[in-house]
Design brief:
Bound molecules: adenosine-5'-triphosphate, magnesium ion, fe (iii) ion
CATH architecture of the largest domain: 2-Layer Sandwich
Order of helices and strands: EEEHEHEHEEEHHHHEHEH
CATH class of the largest domain: Alpha Beta
Distance between the termini: 24 Å
Largest sheet: 5 strands, mixed
Number of domains: 2
Number of helices: 9
CATH superfamily of the largest domain: ATPase, nucleotide binding domain
C-alpha cells in the first residue's frame, strides 16, 4: 500500500510517501515569514500553505520515485492545529482523493508525533509516551495501536512554548527551543535554581510560572551591567535543567504507575539534547527500552502523518468526505 501523507497543522507545509517498504520521501517547506513576528501568525500560515502545498506534494512524489497514480490513500492531519492551516491540507487531500477515487485517512497530529517512533524503530506495547511539543505536554499510556489513555498534561504552557517564550524574554529568535538547547551546552546548569512546578502532582505539568520567574530573575540582575551577555549560556542551561528535570521526574512517575518497560519521547522538544540524555539515564536506571525519533521526525513533518495513515489504513480506519478539521482534536 502506498500512502501520501500531508501535514499543515501549523507553520510547516509537509508531504511524505510511506509504502510497504517504509518511508520513501519526506519533504518540509518551513515558513520563514513568521520569524519577524516572533511567533506564528495564523492568517499568514494559511496563505503560505496554500502557496506551497502542491509544490511540496509534487516534490514528495518525485523523491519517492512515484506518481499520484500509484497512491492508494491520502493521509492528512485533521487536528489539533490552526483552523485555517488545517483547512488547506484537508481540502487539498479531499480534492486528491476525489480526483483519483481513493480513500482519505484523517490523522491526529499528536498520535502521529508518537508513531513517528515507528519510522525507524519498533517500540513494544504497552509503552508510555512523553509527548512534548510547541502546543502540548502529555504523558500518554499507549496500551496498543490507537489505544491511548492520557495520564496527564500541562495545565497552562507547553514545554516547547516555555522554551520559546523564555527565549523571547532572553532576546533569542523564534523558535527559541533549539537555540536555548545549543546555548545550554556551553553553560552551567546549576547557575540558578529556577522553580519546578507541581512536583506534588504525579502526571500534570505547569510551565507558565517558570517564564515569569525568569523575567523577575533578570529584573533583579538589572544593576549588573552586561549580566545577560555574560551569563546567557548559564541562564539557558539552568532553564533547560528546570524544564527537563520536571519532565523526566513525571515520566518516572508514569513508568512506576503503569509498570511498562518501554518508553518513547515524541514531539519537537524531544529533539532537546538535555531531555534525550536524562531520558536515557532514566531508562537505564529502570531497565526500560527507550525510543526517541531521529531529529527530523521530532518537529512537525509529514513522515509521521504518512506512517500513522499507513497504520490506520491497514486497520480500515478510513474517513469520508465529511471529515472536518478540529483545532482541539483529542486523541481517541
Ligand atoms: P503541537 O505538536 O503541540 O501541535 P507544534 O507542532 O508547533 O505543536 P512541534 O513542531 O512538535 O510543535 O515542536 C515545536 C516546538 O519544539 C517549538 O516550541 C520548539 O522551540 C521546540 N523545539 C524544537 N527543537 C528543540 C530543542 N532542541 N530543544 C527544545 N525545544 C525544541
Ligand atoms: Mg513549526
Ligand atoms: Fe507538532
Amino acid at each position: 500500500m502506498n500512502i501520501l501523507g500531508i501535514e499543515s497543522s501549523c507553520d510547516e507545509t509537509a508531504a511524505a510517501v510511506y509504502t510497504d517498504e517504509g518511508l520513501r520521501s519526506n519533504i518540509i517547506a518551513s515558513q520563514a515569514v513568521h520569524e519577524q513576528y516572533g511567533g506564528v501568525v495564523p492568517e499568514l500560515a494559511s496563505r503560505a500553505h496554500h502557496k506551497t502545498i502542491w509544490r511540496t506534494i509534487e516534490q514528495a512524489l518525485t523523491e519517492a520515485d512515484t506518481s499520484l497514480q500509484a497512491i492508494d490513500a491520502v493521509a492528512v492531519t485533521q487536528g489539533p492545529g490552526l483552523m485555517g492551516s488545517l483547512l488547506v491540507g484537508l481540502c487539498f487531500a479531499k480534492g486528491l482523493c476525489l480526483s483519483r477515487d481513493i480513500p482519505l485517512v484523517g490523522v491526529n497530529h499528536m498520535d502521529a508525533h508518537i508513531y513517528a517512533n515507528f519510522i525507524e524503530g519498533q517500540p513494544n506495547y504497552p509503552f508510555v509516551s512523553l509527548t512534548v511539543s510547541g502546543g502540548h505536554t502529555q504523558l500518554v499510556h499507549v496500551k496498543g495501536p490507537f489505544d491511548h489513555t492520557l495520564l496527564g498534561e500541562t495545565r497552562d504552557d507547553a514545554a516547547g512554548e516555555a522554551f520559546d517564550k523564555i527565549g523571547k524574554i532572553l532576546g533569542l529568535p523564534y523558535p527559541a527551543g533549539p537555540v536555548i538547547d545549543q546555548r545550554a551546552k556551553e553553560g552551567d546548569t546549576m547557575f540558578h535554581d529556577f522553580p519546578q512546578a507541581m512536583l506534588d502532582n504525579d502526571f500534570e505539568f505547569s510551565f507558565s510560572g517558570l517564564k515569569t520567574s525568569v523575567m523577575y530573575y533578570l529584573e533583579d540582575q538589572d544593576d549588573q551591567a552586561g549580566f545577560l551577555e555574560d551569563h546567557l549560556d548559564d541562564v539557558c542551561a539552568s532553564v533547560s535543567r528546570a524544564i527537563t528535570e520536571v519532565l523526566v521526574k513525571k515520566l518516572a512517575n508514569a513508568i512506576e504507575h503503569t509498570e511498562v518497560d518501554t518508553i518513547v519521547l515524541a514531539g519537537g522538544v524531544s529533539a532537546n539534547s538535555m531531555l534525550r540524555q536524562k531520558a536515557q539515564t532514566l531508562a537505564k536506571e529502570r531497565g526500560c527500552q527507550l525510543h526517541i525519533p531521529q531529529l527530523a521526525y521530532c518537529t512537525d513533518n509529514a513522515a509521521m502523518i504518512a506512517i500513522t495513515g499507513y497504520m490506520m489504513a491497514q486497520r480500515n480506519q478510513f474517513a469520508d468526505m465529511n471529515l472536518k478539521p478540529f483545532a482541539n482534536l483529542a486523541s481517541k
